[in-house]
Amino acid sequence: MGGFLIHILDTVIVTGYAKAPQGTSMYELYKHVGIVLEINHKTHTIERADFTFVTGLTKDFFERILIGYSLNEGLDPLIQTIKERYLAPSQQAMIVALQSAVQRYWDFTSKKK
User: Fold this and answer.
1) How many Cβ atoms are within 10 Å of 58's Cβ, its own excluded?
2) Along the 113 residues of the chain, how does pLDDT read in single tens digits?
3) CA angle 99, 104, 106 (to 5 degrees)
4) What does pTM read for this prediction?
């Protein structure tokens, strides 16, 4: 039967975007804030994350916040952490992108049932 091996994953990839604030390097490079999350659809836990940030330090910071987080806990704790710890002009855009990605994930899980 063709010799193809399909690797079954317990994860899905979801993305979310928001307009980056004008006057920031993120806006000049990308025009938007983007977030890509790999989420385990059995545990609802974020396993990997990537972003359209300019610096590796910011990417690493958000990876530490998000990886291992269970979406069963809701978004409020994550949003609060971002508001308290990410003091940058793109803070609100990052929150919107995160909300968009997570909403896309929950939409997927509800259709799957």
Assistant:
1) 16
2) 556 667 788 999 999 999 999 988 888 888 999 999 999 999 999 999 999 988 999 999 999 999 999 999 999 999 999 999 999 999 999 999 999 999 999 999 998 76
3) 95
4) 0.90
Torsion of CA 110, 66, 51, 56, to 10 degrees: -170
DSSP characters over 46-111: EEEEEE--SSHHHHHHHHHHHTT-BGGG-SHHHHHHHHHH--STTHHHHHHHHHHHHHHHHHHHHH
Helix axes 56-66, 76-85, angle to 10 degrees: 150
- Half-sphere exposure for 63 (CA within 13 Å, toward CB): 12
Q: What is the DSSP letter of 31?
A: S
